[in-house]
């Protein structure tokens, strides 16, 4: 207890001892220390010495000649920035360093600061100059340059820049010859890169052929085929045969094709050896393909049977099905059901099924007298193998083959065989049956089988698309829209549902929603003309002419000869007042399809407005040939002659019109005026005829007025007949509404004073829009089972996408 101290003791100072410092570090009396002040005055502002030998002043201070100055404690000398003042403080003969730490590198001799001890290493060695490349390195560098040129040539060819591709191929060939010379000079000929030489020559020959330089291409191919160092070069004889075929040299083409077939015999031998030693599905498919190329029916059958004998060596699907109440086992199954090993097994199974079905579809049309018998042989062979499940898929493919041959009866009979089979196959067959009945416009049967397909498989999006198509045919657009939305909920990338949903919203007037669906499809299926057209037309309906013209121009890049697209662009530029640009597109439309009366009418009106009536004559004469019973076209021709100053020709044309249409009042009036201007006596005769015609018309009008009184039986029928005769009619069967900004086709008639067409509307042509009615129809899904979820979707009458 005596040793304990408490914080409350008054006599104890808790902070005592902290002010005690070493006398050398005590600065309280430095101001009164004369020695220190003298040292400060003489060394202030000087830097410590950097020489290895101390200066004279420092030497004198350290040699003991200077007496000891003031001290701050007994026996403690004073330090300055130059070292020790007073040299008797060390007994070992070494002077103290300028600091108390010898490790800093300073000594009392004033040596240079060198904490890393690098002073004795000497200067840095000179830089090593880069040595020249060895011959091997030069050759490898040149090989890389040649390969780069080949890649550039191939990329240019893929962009259809065939001229640039040929230039790069020629440059690569020149570099490769230089490479061979360098190898010979360096004595490295044994390391000749044959693959590089083959690539250079093969690419050069291809680019020659792409540029229609057939002679040069054949010469290059001959260089390859005659060199025995190139393996499998005989296959290039197919390319040589193709070139001879393009040149019209069919005998030589047949010769090269036969020479190429000789290569398949060797290939068959190799494939047979592989199938004997280690059979696999890919080699089996190649073997069947080689037999097919040789046209050997019996060997095709044997090769197909060999393919069916290949073992898959994977676990059954039942292994991954939970069949017990063991929670732990079910959790393990849930984990391994989608692990990498299971995915690899699925991939192997799909590869096996694809190989078998591809081989069956390849040989079925040729191994028997008819493709039906060939399919039956393949189906029986599959049923007798371990791949029994593929027989149903091949039967469905048989129905699709019937459909491609326009044999709807046999296709329907084949598909009806699956109605009572397992659920998945029945759903697929019912989907295809629904598609066939839609093609035959039997909507009730199509709806029946579409419902059957949906009930068999609730996740069959194609069945929902067909249901929507049936509702679309019945013009029940709201119901059709619901089915398309349901199909998209199952498969968001179903392009048929997206396209048909866009058309349905367009019919309902929901242009923004239709545009959204079609833009989504455009993101999935790029540059599909029907989709691009619908997007452009929707922008036109939304009065966004800038976007509409941009999409129409993009469509012209896909179908540059479509006259309707040129006409649409002409309408857009005409509505914006750009007559010159509109004329260019209308003229291109007329050039590709010179029978569109709307385009003919616009072009004739354009020249009349620009006071070039003589150029409009040819257009109106063509219209008169197309509609000879329409007096307006003949009057337009006569009016053009009159406006161009050819009065005699105009008079003759009016006389011909009068003989053909004697009751045309407008023609008689113009004949009277023109005859009077020319001073002809015939004017009086035409005036008398005009009075007779007017009198007859007045009598008709009076009878029509009396017949149109209330209670008259003939009033309604006459009114309807007169209305139908006076008004124009829309394009027959066209589902595409007219775009905003479309001018009336009678503008040309109103522009000519005295014309019989003033205020009238020209009759539309019978021209059917190639992207109008056809594209307005919804797509119908056709499911053709290939893999688990592989099917082909086809438009009404046409495939949706090329495979």
TrEMBL record:
InterPro entries tied to this protein: TPR-like_helical_dom_sf, TPR_rpt
MF (Gene Ontology): kinesin binding
Pfam families, per database record: TPR_1, TPR_12, TPR_19
Biased composition regions of type Acidic residues, renumbered to the chain: 788-803
Comp. bias intervals (Low complexity): 717-727
Biased composition (Basic and acidic residues): 692-703, 776-787
Disordered: annotated segments: 41-60, 692-803
TPR repeats (start-end): 234-267, 461-494, 495-528, 563-596, 597-630
Keywords annotated in UniProt: TPR repeat
Cellular component annotations (GO), alphabetically ordered: centriole; ciliary basal body; ciliary base; non-motile cilium
GO biological process: intraciliary transport; non-motile cilium assembly
Official protein name in the record: Intraflagellar transport protein 88-like
Organism, scientific name: Homarus americanus
Name of the gene encoding the protein in the UniProt record: Ift88-L
């Amino acid at each position: 207890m005596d040793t304990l101290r408490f914080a409350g003791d008054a006599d104890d100072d808790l902070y005592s001892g902290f002010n005690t410092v070493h006398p050398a570090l005590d600065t309280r009396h430095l101001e009164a220390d004369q020695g220190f002040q003298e040292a400060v005055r003489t060394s202030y502002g000087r830097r410590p010495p950097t020489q290895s030998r101390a200066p004279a002043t420092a030497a004198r201070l350290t040699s003991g000649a200077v007496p000891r100055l003031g001290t701050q404690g007994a026996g403690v000398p004073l330090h300055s920035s130059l070292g020790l003042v007073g040299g008797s403080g060390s007994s070992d003969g070494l002077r103290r360093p300028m600091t108390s730490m010898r490790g800093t590198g300073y000594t009392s001799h004033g040596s240079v600061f060198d904490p890393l001890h690098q002073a004795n290493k000497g200067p840095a060695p000179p830089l090593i100059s880069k040595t020249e490349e060895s011959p091997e390195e030069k050759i490898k560098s040149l090989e890389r340059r040649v390969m780069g040129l080949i890649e550039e040539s191939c990329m240019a060819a893929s962009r259809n820049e065939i001229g640039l591709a040929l230039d790069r191929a020629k440059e690569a060939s020149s570099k490769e010859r230089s490479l061979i010379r360098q190898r010979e000079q360096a004595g490295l000929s044994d390391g000749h890169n044959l693959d590089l030489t083959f690539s250079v020559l093969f690419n050069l020959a291809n680019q020659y052929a792409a540029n229609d330089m057939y002679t040069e291409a054949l010469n290059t191919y001959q260089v390859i085929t005659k060199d025995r160092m190139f393996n499998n070069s005989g296959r290039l004889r197919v390319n040589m045969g193709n070139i001879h075929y393009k040149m019209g040299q069919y005998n030589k083409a047949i010769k090269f094709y036969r020479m190429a077939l000789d290569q398949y015999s060797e290939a068959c031998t190799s494939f047979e050896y592989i199938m004997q030693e280690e059979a696999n599905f890919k080699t089996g498919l190649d073997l069947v393909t080689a037999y097919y190329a040789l046209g050997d029916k019996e060997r095709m059958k044997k090769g197909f049977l060999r393919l069916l004998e290949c073992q898959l060596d994977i676990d059954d699907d039942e292994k991954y099905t939970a069949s017990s109440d063991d929670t732990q086992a079910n959790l393990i199954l849930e984990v391994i059901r989608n692990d990498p090993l299971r995915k690899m097994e699925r991939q192997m199974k799909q590869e096996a099924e694809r190989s078998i079905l591809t081989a069956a579809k390849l040989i079925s049309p040729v191994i028997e007298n008819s493709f039906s018998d060939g399919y039956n042989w393949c189906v029986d062979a599959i049923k007798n193998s371990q791949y029994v499940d593929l027989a149903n898929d091949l039967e469905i493919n048989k129905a699709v083959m019937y459909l491609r041959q326009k044999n709807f009866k046999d296709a329907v009979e084949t598909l009806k065989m699956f109605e009572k089979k397992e659920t998945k196959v029945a759903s697929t067959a019912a989907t295809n049956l629904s598609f066939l009945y839609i093609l035959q416009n039997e909507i009730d049967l199509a709806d029946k089988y579409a419902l059957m397909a949906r009930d068999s498989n609730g996740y069959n999006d194609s069945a929902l698309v067909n249901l929507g198509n049936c509702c679309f045919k019945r013009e029940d657009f709201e119901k059709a829209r619901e089915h398309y939305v349901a199909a998209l909920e199952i498969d968001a990338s179903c392009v048929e549902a997206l396209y048909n949903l866009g058309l349905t919203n367009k019919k309902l007037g929901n242009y923004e929603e239709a545009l959204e669906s079609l833009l989504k499809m455009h993101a999935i299926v790029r540059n599909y003309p029907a989709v691009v057209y619908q997007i452009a037309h929707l922008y036109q309906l939304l009065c966004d002419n800038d976007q509409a013209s941009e999409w129409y121009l993009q469509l012209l890049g896909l179908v540059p000869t479509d006259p309707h697209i040129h006409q649409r662009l002409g309408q857009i530029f005409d509505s914006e007042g750009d007559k010159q640009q509109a004329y260019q597109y209308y003229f291109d439309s007329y050039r590709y399809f010179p029978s569109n009366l709307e385009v003919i009418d616009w072009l004739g009106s354009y020249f009349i407005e620009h006071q070039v009536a003589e150029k409009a004559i040819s257009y109106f004469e063509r219209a008169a040939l197309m509609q000879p019973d329409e007096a307006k076209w003949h009057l337009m021709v006569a009016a053009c002659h009159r406006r161009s100053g050819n009065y005699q020709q105009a008079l003759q044309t009016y006389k011909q019109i009068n003989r053909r249409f004697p009751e045309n009042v407008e023609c008689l009036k113009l004949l009277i005026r023109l005859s009077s201007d020319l001073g002809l006596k015939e004017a009086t005769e035409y005036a008398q005829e005009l009075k007779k015609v007017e009198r007859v018309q007045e009598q008709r009008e009076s009878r029509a007025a009396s017949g149109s009184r209330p209670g008259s039986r003939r009033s309604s029928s006459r009114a309807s007949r007169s209305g139908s005769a006076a008004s124009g009619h829309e394009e027959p069967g066209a589902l595409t509404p007219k775009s905003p900004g479309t001018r009336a086709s009678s503008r040309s008639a109103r522009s000519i004073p005295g014309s019989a067409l003033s205020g009238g509307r020209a009759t539309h042509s019978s021209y059917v829009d190639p992207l109008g009615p056809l594209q307005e129809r919804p797509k119908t899904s056709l499911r053709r089972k290939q893999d688990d979820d592989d099917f082909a979707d086809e438009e009404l009458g046409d495939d949706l996408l090329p495979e």
